[in-house]
Amino acid sequence: MFRSRHLALAVACFLPTALLAQDKPKVTAASPEAAGEYLMIVGSCHDCHTAGWTESKGKIAKDDQLTGNPVGFKGPWGTVYGKNLRTIAARQSEDHWVHVLQTADGGEGDLPMPWHNTAMMTEEDLRNLYKYTKSLGAKVGARIPRNAKPGMQPQGQYIDLSTQGAAAPADTTKKP
C-alpha cells in the first residue's frame, strides 16, 4: 500500500514533465512537398495568402494558390495584405525561410500573421512548407497593395478586424 502510494505520487509529479519533454508531432507523408501541402492547408496559410480560398472552400486551382491576396486585414496594427509566398520562396534560400518563420525576423513580422504558431513548428515542418511552396514555381498573381501603418488609408480592399465601434459590455452595476 505504502509503495503504491509513492509510485502514484511519483507518476503524478513527473508525468507532466515527461509529456512536455516529448517530441512535437511528426507529419508523415509521401514526400516533403506533400507534407508541406498538408501543413499549408491545416495551418490556414491559404486563408491569407491565396485569393478566394475561404470563399471557395479551398477550391482554387493549384496554379493560382499562394500568389498573394489583394484583400487585406485591417486592425490596430494597420492594414496588411497576404504576400505572394511563391515569389518569396523563389528569391529566398530555404535557410532564410526557416529563420524568418522561426523568429519573425527580416522585415516579415507583420500582424496578423501567426508568428507565435510558426515559431512552434519543427524545422522539418518549416522546410517542408518551403519545399512545397518552391515546387509550385514562382508566379506573379494579382497586384497586392502595400501594407498601411495604423492611421493611414489602405490602397486596396480590406476586411476590418479592428475593435473600434464594438459594443461595450452592458453596465450591470446598480446605481443608487
How is this fold's topology laid out?
Blueprint: H1 2-21, H2 32-42, H3 45-49, E1 72-75, E2 78-80, H4 85-91, H5 94-103, H6 115-118, H7 123-135, E3 158-160
Parallel strand pairs: 1-3
Antiparallel strand pairs: 1-2
Helix pairs in contact: 2-7, 5-7
How would you characterize this protein structure?
This protein is mainly α and 176 residues long. The protein has a domain at 28-69 and 83-137. It is built from seven helices and three strands; from the N terminus they run H-H-H-E-E-H-H-H-H-E. The protein has helices at residues 2-21, 32-42, 45-49, 85-91, 94-103, 115-118, 123-135, and strands spanning 72-75, 78-80, 158-160. The chain has a three-stranded mixed beta sheet with strand order 2-1-3, with no helix packed on it. The longest helix is centred in the first third of the chain and has 20 residues, at 2-21. It is globular and about 45 Å long. The termini are far apart.
Give the distance, in angstroms, between the N- and C-terminal Cα atoms: 62 Å
Averaged pLDDT: 82
- Based on DSSP secondary structure assignment, what is the total number of beta strands? 3
Shape: globular
Largest sheet: 3 strands, mixed
Strand order of the largest sheet: 2-1-3
Number of discrete helical segments: 7
Q: Hey, roughly how much beta strand do the residues contain?
A: 5-15%
Structural class designation: mainly alpha
Task: State the share of residues found in helices, binned by percent.
Answer: 25-40%
Q: What Rg do the Cα atoms give? A: 22 Å
Return residue spans where pLDDT drops below 50 for at least 5 consecutive residues.
1-21, 167-176
Secondary-structure element order, as H and E?
HHHEEHHHHE
